[in-house]
Amino acid sequence: METPLSRPEGLARAPGDFYWLERNVPCQAACPARTDIPGYLAAISRGDYEQAYRINLADNVFPGVLGRVCARPCEAPCRHGWPGLGESVAICASKRSASDHRVSTEPIRLPPVFPPTGKYIAVVGAGVAGLTAARQLALYGHSVTVFEREGVPGGMMRQGIPAFRLPRAVLEQEIRQIEALGVTLKCSTPIGDDGGPMLDDLRKEFNAIILAAGTIQLHRPDTPGGERAGIEHGLDFLRDVNLRGRKTVGRLVAVIGGGFTAIDCARVALRLGAEKVAVYYRRAVADLVVTPGELDAMAHEGIPLETQVIPRAYEGDRDAVRRIQFLRTRPGEPDASGRRRPVDVPGTEFYVEADRVLLATGQRPDPSWLGIEWKNLLLDADGRWRVDPDGRTAAPGIFLAGDYATGASNLIEAIAHAKSCALAADEYLTGQRRIGMAVTIESGRDVARTRILDELPRQPMPECPLPSRGLETEVELGLAPEPAQQEARRCYLCHYKYEIDMSRCIYCDQCVEAKPRPDCIVKASALQRDEQSRITGWARKSDSVRAEAKPFFYWIHQEDCIRCNACLEVCPVQCINVQKVSLSRGPEMVQDVETRARG
Is the pLDDT reported for residue 270 higher than 70? Predict the structure, then answer.
């Protein structure tokens, strides 16, 4: 019997095994941290929120945080959202429910993976990447100290994200879980040219250094009048509000830019009492990179968004901005990333009154604090890092993690990169790759999904009413236990593989007659394979061939299968096998030949 997996059960490492998971579990494949999404959704559907939280904790480090502010790359490819199948599963909201409904709220101390190694590691930056790398390296048995220039840890999770999106108690608890592993946090301790210890000092004291300083160098476009009072970068504004309790903003606020920072600035400014707030973006709505639902939330709060406009001058008197001159734009030629550059449309000038301008115009890593010798070593002639995809630099024992290595991204991407960086650092410190990946294959006959679950609607996120919204009041209230379980039951359980054993099949066609999807079960004459022998498709049986000749076989196409068990129920000879296929990480998964999957 031809099968896409290399073995019926146990640990598997063939290219086809990883390929099957990547192709057939689209939510996990889309998650940069490769979170076991089907696993934790199944736990929630059983009401086991503790297990669901622990699955998330192992994979993405900050379940309660990400359950609120993750960019949700997993939801768009969810099979439940494919044409004709309804809406995708509310994966992010489900992750939050695992955090909200745990029986115990005590910090969890994960068990160490390895005994103490006697190695000491410094991490510069206590943001999401720095804390992730610190946790992973502590689990690997190393002693980790994190240096943070601000007075509190959290990085952009605390500095940039407002409390009405991310309550500080949730963030603080998940930071405590990292400290519980023995990680030392030294806040109010800048490194390098900021006045604290120099990188050379850390080099003498520690066996390796992880630089995870984020993107704190702010980009301000060179627009005429941009030096006027009342014009500031949005991240400076959010830091003032989130760290220093700022309570004031202008009467007429214009936010320039798109993305997370722009929308957070606008919603915060409204809560600080601005009479009018609007966001102006130079590209189209489709180009905005924001969390799903954020534009709707902003519109619900009465904040307009105007797209394809760009400021060309800030006008006013010597002391303050008074109005902005805008031009409309149109898409121009593609840039290096493939995005079309906005081009001014002459003669489309218009003016907007504003006494406060918040620039959400981007940020980049700041290497200035490293010192000239380290900058010459770590940067090339064009000012780009000499760094590989896992964070290794040109200097032995120096690694870059998260946004400091890649440029501005989102939380889950920074977590994924920091995990890879931690593996690279551990390999440098120990001289061996101690964590590997494999595919775990188990019997899956206990799957309990039925067609009626397909009719369940996506559960809406409850929100607090508009009059109650303030800086500290969380807007999204989370799913209650029963709706959370109902939402999780909508998952198609794509990690279960259904396959027909043709050695037992009697060609009765009952499974074909019962199938709910056009191609979930097909009559095939041959399978198609690539150069690595991975099954990539099938050749359909010709209708001209007589059925009694049986020159074909039944093939369950996993991408169309919705795990409804209709085929299992009608098969008279029980020739349909079900396997549960999962991605596994750990010391026991190490092998000499690296897979292309990343831990």
Answer: yes
